[in-house]
Write a sequence for this structure.
């Protein structure tokens, strides 16, 4: 079974690296809390400044507060969510380096490898563009948004390969290629993701401690899945590819 094979390979890659994986999650947690605290302080300062500026004009304290919450709070909330999600892509990049044989032993450099390895800007553009596309599809109905999310799921791995190999790949091209690669594989990936629900539940009931092992395990499995779907795409479309250097990824390892 594909899921079992992928998970077996992922555990083999994590053998001797579980501590490394747990530390990347710890650093992610620390960075996330620092960003949340900084965001909270900025939110508080913005609130105080708004009150000081508008108080002489409008003496209605609750009216000013209501306007602030309606305008500023959604911006603050979405910004914090997006920052946390982008920080989480560092774990994705680190585990993909692990399965590709490019593991960074320095845990700090691994956790923030998007920036350390000069991937930051192109990584961010690809992530943001795929997020925008997915959000726009979600405005139609929830299910099309999920489907497109699965279709765009390989774009960050693709852009990471392109950056590491020094090949030309724009964010839009990475997203387009991801959509092609995932043709016929979307429900397969959804099933693989759902297979981790039990592990995520156990992580929650252990007050988050389980995430130190569950997240590296899940991300490493997803990195192996990318190798699998990319190898399948290459086999099916080899004749139509202009450059194997651009469109191939790490060697296929799931037997």
């Amino acid at each position: 079974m594909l899921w079992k094979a992928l998970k077996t390979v992922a555990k083999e890659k994590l053998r001797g690296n579980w501590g490394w994986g747990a530390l990347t999650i710890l650093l992610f947690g620390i960075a996330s809390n620092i960003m949340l605290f900084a965001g909270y302080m900025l939110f508080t300062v913005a609130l105080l400044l708004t009150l000081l500026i508008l108080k002489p004009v409008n003496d209605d304290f609750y009216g000013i507060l209501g306007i602030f919450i309606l305008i500023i709070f959604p911006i603050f909330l979405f910004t914090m969510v997006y920052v946390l999600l982008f920080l989480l892509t560092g774990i994705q990049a680190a585990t993909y380096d692990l399965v590709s044989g490019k593991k960074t032993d320095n845990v700090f450099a691994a956790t923030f490898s998007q920036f350390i390895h000069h991937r930051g800007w192109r990584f961010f553009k690809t992530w943001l563009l795929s997020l925008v596309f997915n959000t726009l599809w979600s405005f139609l109905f929830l299910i099309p948004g999920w489907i497109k999310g699965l279709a765009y799921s390989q774009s960050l791995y693709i852009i990471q390969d392109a950056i590491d190999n020094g090949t030309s790949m724009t964010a839009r091209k990475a997203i387009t290629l991801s959509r092609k690669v995932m043709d016929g594989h979307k429900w397969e990936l959804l099933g693989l993701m759902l297979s981790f629900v039990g592990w995520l539940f156990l992580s929650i009931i252990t007050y988050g401690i389980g995430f130190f092992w569950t997240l590296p395990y899940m991300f490493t499995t997803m990195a192996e899945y990318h190798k699998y779907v990319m190898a399948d795409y290459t086999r099916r479309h080899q004749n139509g590819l202009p450059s194997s250097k651009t469109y191939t990824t790490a060697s296929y390892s799931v037997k």
Residues 61-99 form the longest helix (39 residues). Confidence is low (pLDDT under 50) at residues 241-255. The chain is about 80% helix and 0% strand.
